[in-house]
Amino acid sequence: MKFDNSFFHSSFFRMTFLLIYGVLVLFSITTKTHNLHHQVHTNNLSFGNNTISKNLLVHQFYSQFTHSPLLLLQKKISFSQSIVTHGTRLKKEVALTFDADMTPWMKEQKDLGYVTSYYDSRVITELEKTNTSATFFLTGMWIQMYPTETKAFGKNKLFELANHSYSHPSFAGSCFGLSVETSNQLPDEINKTQELLKNVGNTSNSYFRFPGGCYDNASLAVVQKEHLTVVHWDTVGNDGFNPDTSSIVSNVLSQTTNGSIIALHLGGESNTPHTADALPAIIENLKQRGFIFVTVSQLLSDKQITIAPTPLLTTFFTNQGDPKTHLLSVNQQTEKE
Predict the structure, then answer these.
(1) Closest Cα partner for 190 from 224, 164, 154, 220?
(2) CB–CB of 297/160 below 8 Å?
């Protein structure tokens, strides 16, 4: 059979090509997932160092999809409430943010002595040394474990504190292995931490960040009812369980632009051992490019809030079960500039 050039430009050809391409991509994903599960379940997954090996394995798996065609297959979900992912693109201002995660499983690991600390003080030292502003999204359980540090953060004029739930559960079903709370438990997850931020951190907070970045219409409505603004990110450091300092630096520098909200972590040692190592290069390079570091509230002070998809996280903090992705997107509304 002979085909002229018009055939290759036809709708039929394009649709057939996309269908075959999609099948191949899904086959690749299924194969990788099967291999991951096999590796996870054939390794000794006891506590301690083997747990860290499991986490590194998962980090490597998800890192394969950071720029993969999988992102093109995300299901579009329309939300009625807004998610802030960056500030105005008209100013060379950026916001460094650090999540301080804590789950019951993580607390157990520390209580049993398998983990020494979930707080890397080197991050604070570097921020203070370079006079760099930052916003910390704290879980309530982390505040209870580190009340002295939380109180000091609240008194520091460089810093701002915000809400990252109480026990870091999923607010929307399957989400990177996080435990799933029932809908009637979600308000307590928010309010308990609001009280801790007020009583321990001396902070009247207005911002919330979903654990794992996972959310749906119902969970967005819960946050809205508590009169909090959801703040996510447009720049992901992927520092979770990442053994490569240079990749964390590269991830941040390559994505940051005017108004960026940068997502990093405060976990240290076990979960984010190289965030503090990457911080000096991140701060120095961005300042050399003319960026000014501000808190989230300063970044959003002009009220130019942007509704946009939250970039996919490629790492997570597992507490039980097999890792699962949770891809969500919101309608994108670009800022009028």
Answers:
(1) 164
(2) yes
Residue 89: is its pLDDT beyond 70?
Answer: yes
Residue 182, pLDDT score: 87
Give pLDDT tens digits for 307-321: 555 555 544 333 333
Residues 6+ apart with CB under 8 A from 257: 89, 234
Give the Cβ contact number of residue 9 at 10 Å: 9
Question: Helices 11-41 and 49-63 sit at what angle, rounded to 10 degrees?
Answer: 170
Residue type for position 32: K
What residue spans define the domains of the chain?
5-73, 93-299
Q: Which residues pair with 100 in a beta bridge?
A: 138
CB atoms within 10 A of CB 146: 20
Class of 93-299 per CATH? alpha beta
Given a contact cutoff of 8 angstroms between Cβ atoms, the answer to whether 297 and 222 are in contact is: no
